[in-house]
Records
---
Amino acid sequence: MNKKGRKLWGLGILLFIVLIVLAACNDNKEVNQSENGESVEDDIVKVKVYKSHLGKGTIPNSDDAHVQYIAEKTGVEYELITTPAGSDPAEQLNYMIASDELPDILRPIGGVEQTLITQGGALALDDLLPEYAPNVWKNIPEEAWDVVRSASEDGKIYYIPKVFLVPERAPLIRQDWLDAVDLEMPKTVEEYKEILIAFRDEDPNGNGEKDELPTSGREFGKWMDHLFAMYGVAMWEGNPEWDIYDGQINYAGTSENMKAAIAFIRELYEEKLLDNETFLNKGEVWTAKINTNLVGSWYHLPANLHDRYEAMKAGAPDAYVVGMPLPKVDGFKGFVTQKSMGEAEWMIPLASEDKAVAALKLLDFFYADENEEFVRFGIEGAQHKMEDGKKVLIPATDETPIALGMRNLTTEEDMEKRIEETFPEDQQTMVKDIFSVSTQDARRIAGDGLPSTVYDGFPDIQSHKLFQEYLTKIVIGQWPIEKFDEFVERWKASGGDTVTERVQEWYDKVN
């Protein structure tokens, strides 16, 4: 090799070494990002946020404009994770706990919050909240924090509670169906049954077919709480709650009110006034029946009515939904169950303590008043569009990224704004009127905020499995109503009396 060639060869070797060093530096930078969970370049911390219940859409990634806006404002990247399709959320969370692969902040379900608290796996937030989540701390009422403290033996705050200061659920009925059968809003349970008979027989949806379902519910007897509410039964999405019966706090599932309600529901089922597929209806099937103008009376969330109402109008342009005041039943004082505070909404696992500050900063963003408009409307072109100078939400689809959220605090003022800003003008009066009606019938139950620790050692009582079995078999006529008394005895013998004592102790403590 000549002198010139040796020189070029030497330069090539030097260049090769420089490239290796640069690559190594880049590799180290990527390792640092991965190990520390934050970017060396822009100092953004990734926080894994677990939710089990999501609406339509895809999981947004780091490039999503919604994710990037929040990261810019907080220094935290919101990494949304959820339950795999087809899996049970409670089982999935318990698997995460067992495998020590928990997210940085999670929305608990199925009593998982108490599992973490009792096993020492939850981070106490008393000192962290005022400093790193001041908006969460000040906006949630002190009464709600007191309920949270009552859920742990040491009286510490281990989770952020859901606070809903307006009635969340309501009995709903199709006003256009009432008009079609020429009947007024029912005042008594007898008048309500007359209406259901007319819905069954007089073709109020006008399609010429006998396909109307006067009222309907879902599997396990869920989402037909209006039928129990008339009899003064404290129910929450089909599960009996705890309230005052005979002067003491007791499980509504074993009350005489419940026995009377089940007898009435059995009667409706026998006469095909209650959808005979109720105990088979999955959520999407039940929703589809309502949306396609097959159901006349049901129970759900007025604040979520928009998309359903639009679907109804596609097949019935004159569709109109109103709140139904609870019909009176002789001998019973009906009410719509209201749970306003104390349910676990967010908690941070102790294993994620190093991300706690970032997780609370992220949460606080959604509770800050100055971010209210962004939280509601998101990014233009993605979550909203401009029409006549106003922001209008774009309906979600299965292909669009899910809008990120964490706030679950609702006051009357919040709901008023939500209706005015997210519902079309032609729907606003309708939804406000529904809330007005349900508010008159709603009452907070004595067991609002009851911690799931009262069920420790009695998982079947906590899951309401025994109640669901007896409810189903009695309503469909497989068992007589007299079997209800057997259920009460079995419930008490299987731990109900012990649980009742614990509930009484908790009730005395918070009151």
Note: The chain has 20 helices and 18 strands.
---
Amino acid sequence: MTVDEKTIECIVQRVTQELSGTMKPSGETTTLKYLYDDVDEAVNAAYSAQKQFLKFKIEERKRITDSIRSVCMAHAEEMAEMELAETHYGNYPDKLMKMKGAITMTPSVEDLAADIDANDGGMAMYEHAPFGVIGALTPSTNPPETVIANAIMMIAAGNSVVFSTHPGAFQSSCRAVELVAEAIESAGGPRNLVVSLNNPTMARTTEMMNHPKVTMLCATGGPGVVKSILSCGKKGIGAGAGNPPVFVDACADIPKAARDIVTGAGYENNTPCIAEKEIIVVDSVADELLSNMVNAGAYLIKDRFIIEQLTKLCMPKADSPNKELIGRSPAYILSKIGVTIPENTRIAVFEAPADHMLVMNEQMMPIIPLMRVKDAAEGIALSCEAEHGRRHTALCHSKNMDVVTELARRIQTTIFVVNGSCFNGLGFNGGIGPNALTIAGPTGEGPTTPRTFTRKRKLVMVDNFNIR
């Protein structure tokens, strides 16, 4: 599916004019009810709204999150088009699928059932109570999707939210905040339950994170932004960077593994941090894997000079990908060094040594290195080395459960997918569990749900309420 570029541009211009046309000069509050220049005013507005929200019953929270789903789904195509035009990351079909996943697959109040422990001495009940005002930092890679998913979960948990969105995706993020805010009010929720900072800067974001009325922080982004929230002395939920390896064992279903890798690594042009970034395969099945990957839509690069040029283009220096190429298609990237490949190519793959720049550094481009290893033991060791202990995502294709178990135990990632693609780790294409765009590996909460954004409170009834 393709989207008319003129249509995309018209949408961006229209929404940009709607936003900028009502903005006041920096330092003044805008007339838009959800967008604030003044950090203190934004936080206080969200604080007051959360105090009102404490009176809402669980079923009323559910009505609000249902409204968010309904309103955002009606605008899913618009937001996907706008995000693509603003960031140039990924492609429209994948982006729309991701958008709809964030809207429909994010859990709500059903995740908040109380836990009960009862015996002859009485009863203890554990409830999941809100934190209050959450300061949420969103990325450029999933901007509207993260706003929507986090809003659903945080509101279901009884909180209000102050968003500080990524400057590189400001307009599409603002559109998502606007739709969420309208959906909340249309369902009878408090005004300012969700607000956002206007044109967020590092200084404004830092002020928001350190505001005394902000009681929890959530950051979806690189290691720097996670480190910043953890330095504030508050409860922090951090979703950091990854570099997911996919290991293919000699006993794997090779045709299926090839299809899964091409599909997963090509998803959104490899922008998501859960996508397969490097392939590690036992040498005895490497040629078969490559052949099947080509059949599944990959382009195999064999020329060493082209590989060298491509490496320098994609990763000018260690851990510093070329930002102009993040999320771009293989055809677009290779055209920059004069190589023409079919436009519908999902990924480009090339063989590389274990210490190659694109093996050891996350590049977020559909240019995927492949390393040969002699056996599973070497493959497990290299997978752990390439993942760098970030504990994000790893994948394994093997019918040997001893190999699967050993890799899972040693790599300790938050998401571990066996005999599937990264899609399955997000709940798509037959995967199990809810969708999560904030995957809190560094802080240990894992794929976030409404429970993540609550405090666990214990109610004890002694020598009472025992009816057995």
Note: Residues 58-74 form the longest helix (17 residues).
---
Amino acid sequence: MSIQPKRSGMFRTLLFIVMGLIPATAGAAEAPWPERVYNPQKADDDLVLPMPCGGAMVFRRIELPADGLLGDRRIQLGRTDDALGYAENTRPDYIGGGFTDPEKKGTRAYYLGKYEVTQAQWAAFDTPCKAVTDEGRLPVVNITWAESVGFAEKYSAWAAVNAAKQLPTEDGALAFLRLPTEAEWEYAVRGGAAVPDSVFIETTFPMTEAPARYVWYQGTDSANNELNVVGLLKPNPLDLYDMLGNVGEFVLDPFRLNKLSRLHGQAGGQTVKGGDYRTPLADIRSAARQEFVPIDKKGERRSPTTGVRLALVAASLPSPQRLTAIREAWNALPASAVAPQDDPVKEAEALAQSVDDPALKQRIAALSAVIKVSIQTRNEQRDRAAVNALRVGAYVADKLAADQRVLKALQAILEITAKDTAEYKDRADRLTTAEAAFEQNLDYYLDVTLGVETDYPKAVVASQAEVLKRDLEAKKITSLEKRIDTFVKHVEQLRAGSAIDRSKVLADIN
């Protein structure tokens, strides 16, 4: 069913009654809200947390691969765009959920609101309770960042007393609510572990239909410059609704400028993510981040396009037992986990020059030699790993080329097969299976491309590509040389900030 943008309060009321989003009469304010009010798109694995006044809020579990108490995942945030590089340039970050599951080893998780906080949910702490109306399904706006933080704290305290059994726990400690960090928010909007790495870095999460089916943006084909109720459109791959568009969302982190591959040291106002109903479609993107200055000449600043979505998280140190375990895990970390000096050899040489004791000078010189050997060993290991990654990319490219020929043959055979026959159905099923496997192989190729671009500098990729070519020539495997060049081309295109175009990748491979 296509939902058109609202035109007036009366139109919205009639629309919601027809759709069954609210009853024709509101009923008692303290009565439990109908599920369709707080969770219009129900899923079996939703986490529903009650609120005062019979209300509720729904959360989705966001899982990420990470092992051990100090396990986290390196992710790439932002995007490459010189025009907005000062704010959104790509940068690495790390994310780790606080919840563990004994039955899912190697996985950590946090929870994120399935929908933006609505006006009804914001008002659930008011006394006396208010009736749920059609306006209550709209996201709350015109709030400050501090009020958002206060709302999360107030909800946490209420839930700990009134809904402890529904709250997740970690090592016996109750979960609590706060604003999501920017990394938590962006990891979730991009699709997290539910999408391949090559898709994760795209401008938006995958949309199999027109963007207007997923995002409220500026335009008569979408929001028509007006706020819209939550949950009417399609979700992202993690079943989160309205992450892009409708209202911008406060996150926990202050706004910082970008300094190439990292954030700048100065913290400014608050960070708002996601774009809103006044954002043109061309500007809708996962990397979008804006600074929200909390004051203006009139005093406290509020915005009709800015709201909030809550995260449900665990404490980093939920118990004394966990503190002991964390200390043990930290002490077990390899020494290489501590960031070295920019040039440890020069550092050792400088130390040798700063001491007068000949014996100590000799010891430092010996240490410098050990460091040089260690760096050389590390570089050799890196180069061997780069060669293996390039070899994998070339082989997968070769397989994709062969698979495309198989697909064309299967399609040709299907076209000359009589329809409405068992043979036609069998061949159609084979083609469908082959197409699904082909798409998985293409995702894997793009993931390997992203991994090489992330892990190895351009000079290493270029030099080790030549090493691999000479190795294959010695083995008389010359057919892969063009595949190596194609793979390196895709790696460097990605490094230069070019978007991944699957059709162009396949055309290059062919």
Note: The longest helix spans residues 358-415.
---
Amino acid sequence: MSEDHQTKPEFELDPADDVRRASDDSATDAPLWTAENRWRNPEAWWLRAGVGPYLVVGDLVAFVLASAITLPTSPTHLLVLLITLITLSMAGLYRSRLKLSLLDDLPYLIAAVVAGLALKVSLSTFVPGIDPPLEQVEHVTVLLLVVIVVRSIAYAIVRGARRRGWVRHRTMVLGAGVIGTRITHALLDDRRYGLEPVGFVDAACGLDKMHLRPLPLLGDYDRLGQLIREHLIRDVIVAFGGTRENALVDMLRTCDRLDVEVFVVPRLFELHNTHRDTDEVQGIPLVRLRRATFRSPWWAVKRLVDAAVAAVALVLLSPILAICALAVRLEGGPGIIFRQQRVGIDNRPFEVLKFRSLKPVDEAESQTNWNIKHDDRLGRLGRLLRASSLDELPQLWNILRGDMSLVGPRPERPHFVEKFSSYIPRYVTRHRVPAGLTGWAQVHGLRGDTSIEERARYDNYYIENWSPWLDLKIILMTVGQVVRRQGG
């Protein structure tokens, strides 16, 4: 691995200035949207979050109006509001969508208010003073009608704002083939989607008919991140272009660090069934990719939970930590804590802490010896610490400092990161998030002398599918492994 590759992983953006102009001749016809002239075509800050927050406010207004009309006497009618909001959120009715249709939403609106009514009625047996059933039905009926009216007005306002160009997201189309061109024509002809295509990104070869395309070629795939920033792109549509899908995966991970939404035209899209998570442009389905894990609001909560749990655990487990430290000192002498350099988020090195299970001959052995599980120098205490995972407890301090997380890909030494990155596809992309004390690969038995390629696949699966529940699930599975002494 070259020095550049060590300091700047594949998925990390080139830190060049936003004002740098594309160098290829094909992009010269496209306007350069730089940080300096951003004010000339501003997108108001209150539009950056999409329609979701305003739909929530609209439903709250509808609930207040419905309550003012029906005058419920019991405060338990707030349960209807709570269940309605939760149900609509689970149905995806608060996410940004290209196509806003009240008729598509109607079954979910009815289900939401009925669910709230059902909960309230079920509590009438246990909670005194709840409104009579007739008044409850009246309140829910009025609520449904007001929600329908408020949403219809909101949708009309959004569609009108899009048509007039008040809401427009600068869009880049990856792939200048037939499908990419068809989508571009559709977006240019129909502004109700709120997307403003500015150009194509595709390989230079095979584009001899670019003069027939409605927009210019901005550049090649390998300049994707730079082009997104130069042209202030908000949405990327992946059509069928002149690059392999396998290579396109790594290129699209460039978007993880940028505030863009990515839509993908699925293969065999003519056979693709649309559902709540699918958008469409004039009959062509678009699958909206999930936002990068670290762009989720829950990611900040994850860090707070990490710090809180680590701090409490250090206090509660301090007797165990003291016993382990004393045992290590008595068995092996000075040097209770073993410090070793590992690679964390964005390929940044940090020093991981563990209870020493044996003393390496020198630093070279520490950095290059793959596994000491079967090392003859490993004593009874060392084997016990490793089997019970007690040797990992000092890493709680790493978590508290922010070097690591409770759950994430296990950190590896620089020597092996360099080695594995040279032949294992997407190994380096597991460094998009902080390393973890435990992880999805570990709870599936991928530790010690197991397949590195499988570990990388499990780690990347965890990153792409992260959720608070997945973290909790991994922690519970880890506790089970510790109890069964399945450590490394």
Note: The longest strand covers residues 195-201.
